[in-house]
Amino acid sequence: MNAEAIRKDIEDVMDDILSKSKLEEGSLFVVGCSSSSIIGKQIGTSEKEETEEAVDIVYEVISEKLSENKISFAVQCCEHLNRAVVLEKSVAVKYGFEIVNVVPMPHAGGAFAVKHYESLKEPVVVESVNQRADGGLDIGGVMIGMHIHPVVVPIRLEKKNVGEAMILAARRRAKYVGGERAVYNPELA
Fold it and tell me: 73: closest CA among 23, 39, 10, 20?
């Protein structure tokens, strides 16, 4: 694992997302991350010791970039927790999300969810953000689209990987209504 390359990858990716996503202060951004994928292994196959440095680097950069832009940071757990979401209690309360009783672990939630849970002031897990996220980043093919408010629009990123993990990013846009006579506001596109 090349720590410097991973840091550069995730910094570039987050700068690209923030410049293209139309996220505003107070937006909700969800990240799903396979730490195993970052180091070139299949999802869910690595031990914490193997991925800890990569998780720390990726988490630190994402957390700092979102915080600088006053964007709320949520992390999707793995399928063993039904893709529940870890976030700050104040954010869950703000949105009216139902808090559930579970604490993510490396093989039931994932290393990245554990890192987020342990890093928050008042961490909680919610079963769903009810498609209220304004954008998100999928690191390693963990399928975050279900959390983003319809309509989901891909963000075309310059980089395609963080470490060895394939990445995809998305944002929401307002639904188009009307027909052939309708005129749309480009600020909402």
Answer: 23
Report the distance separating Cα 87 and Cα 173, nearest Å.
23
How large is the average pLDDT for residues 156-175? 94
CATH of the domain at 160: 3.40.50.10360
pTM above 0.90, yes or no: yes
Number of domains composing the chain: 1
Q: CA 159 to CA 16: how far, in whole Å?
A: 9
pLDDT per position as a tens digit, 10-61: 999 999 999 999 999 999 999 999 999 998 888 878 877 788 999 999 999 9
Strands 99-100 and 72-76 turn out to be unpaired
At 82 the three-state DSSP class reads: coil
Query: 151 lies in which domain range?
Result: 3-188
How many C-beta atoms lie closer than 10 Å to residue 84's C-beta?
20
Q: For residue 166, which phi and psi values (nearest 5 degrees)?
A: -65, 145
